[in-house]
Amino acid sequence: MFMDGWTLLHIAAEKGRKDTVSLLLSNGAKIDQAMNVHDIETLGNGGTPLPIAASHGHTDIVLLFLSNKAKIDLVNNASDFKKHSD
């Protein structure tokens, strides 16, 4: 884990690195690992890799997270996320 609670999975989700996300998930990365409270308050997105990927337009990674049972209810703006995913 890096400063402020970011993990390699958070970074790969932000950067759109689908192969890296897939590799990390297959090796046991915690899909619903939240960042620290400060980042959640600042970013307002729940602090998990799923909304980070969504906010950067990485639809392929969002679908990968959802297929791996990422919890959408951990997202603060879940209704906004659902609107964009329909």
From TrEMBL:
ANK repeats lie at residues 4-36, 45-77. One of its GO terms (cellular component) is nucleus. SMART domains: ANK. The keyword Transcription does not apply. This is Uncharacterized protein. The keyword Repeat applies. GO terms for molecular function: transcription cis-regulatory region binding. It comes from the Eukaryota. Coiled coil: none annotated. Keywords: ANK repeat, Repeat. One of its GO terms (biological process) is positive regulation of transcription by RNA polymerase II.
